[in-house]
Amino acid sequence: KYLSEDELSDECKNLLLTLPKERGWLVSHIYNYQGFWIAPRLLQGVIACQQQFQAQDSDIILVTTPKSGTTWLKSLLFVLVNRAKYPIFQQTHPLFINNPHDLVPFLELKLYSDGRVPDFSSFTSPRLLSTHLPFASLPKSVQHSTTKLVYLCRNPRDTFISLWHFSNNLKLDHTDVNSMEEMFHLFCKGVAIYGPFWNHVLDYWKQSIEKPNKVLFLMYEEIKDQPKIQLKRLAEFLECPFSIEEENCGVVDEILKMCSFQNLSKLEVNTNGKLSSGEENKIFFRRGEVGDWKNYFTVEMSEKLNHVIQQKFQGSGLRF
Ligand code: A3P
Predict the structure, then answer these.
(1) What whole-number distance in Å separates Cα of residue 307 and Cα of residue 8?
(2) What is the residue with the minimal CA distance to atom 25 of ligand 1?
(3) Which residue from 19, 25, 79, 309 could staple onto 167, CB 3.0 to 4.6 Å apart?
(4) pLDDT (tens digit, 9 = 90+) per residue, 71-85?
(5) Distance from the first to the final alpha carbon of the chain
(6) 292 lines ligand 1 (CB under 6 A)
(7) pTM attached to this predicted model
C-alpha cells in the first residue's frame, strides 16, 4: 500500500517543504526530487529503495517511463527468463493467473512503497524487478553491480495520450477529468511523473551506447513492428538465447502470443483483479496500439511537441 501524505516520515515531510512543486496530474502537486517529478506519497518508497536496495549481480531490472508498455515487457521478461521453470505450453503458467505487475514487482512503487525493508526470500535467481527511476537516481548498488537493465521507451506522443487516459482513470472522482490542454502544457514543460520524459530517455540511451552489456534499449514501436527480432535480441542480452530446437518448435511465437494485448487483456485476472496497491488491473490495458495520438492531437499540439522533440533529441541518434 502507498502511504498517505500524513503517514510520511517527518524526514520526508520536511524534505517536501524544500522541493520545487508543480500542479500534479493525479494529486494536487508533484515535487521535483533529484531532477525528476514525483508524487509526495511515492517519495518515501523512492528514498527507502535508494538507501536500502542491494542489487545482486544476477538481477534483471526493467526500467520504463510510465505508460511506455511496462506491463507488456514485464510479461515478456517473466515468460522468457522462466521458460525452463514454467514451460510455456502449460495451462497453469503463472502469467495466466497473475497480473504482470505482481510477477515483476516495482522496487520503489511496491516493494519499498511503505518505506520498510521488503522480504526477498521468495525470489529465485535471477530476480526480476522493475523501476521507473531515472538512471542517476538508481540505487548505487544497481550501478555498481553487473545487474542488467532493460529499458523500454515509447513515442512521447503516444506515451502522453496513454498517461492522460491513465491519470483520468485513476482519479477517484471520474467527473473531474484533467483537461488535455493543461496536461499537454505540463508534459511539454517536462512536468509529468518521473519526467522530464526526454531526460529519462536520453540518460538510458547514452548508457546503452556506453555500456551495451549493462543496458539494453528497446522501443515499444519496434517490438510491435518486429516482435520476433526484438524478443530474440532481449533473450541474447539476458544470456538466455533461444536454441534452434526452441525456434523450430515455435517457442518464440508462442511467447509473443501469450503476452499479446489480445491474450493478456482478456484474462480473468486482468479484467476483474486488482493490484495490492488498489489499482484495477484492467487500467493497464487500453488500446495497445501505435499512433493513437493522431486521434487526439490538434495541429498546434503536433507542432508544439515536434518542436520540443527536435530540441531535446537532436544529435542523440534517437528519432520520434
Ligand atoms: P495505451 O494507453 O496506448 O493503450 P504501461 O504498462 O507502461 O503502464 O503502459 C500501458 C500501455 O501499454 C497502454 O497503452 C496499454 O494498452 C499498453 N499495453 C498493455 N499491454 C500491452 C500488450 N500486451 N501489448 C501492447 N501494448 C500493451
Answers:
(1) 39
(2) 288
(3) 25
(4) 999 999 999 999 999
(5) 36
(6) yes
(7) 0.96
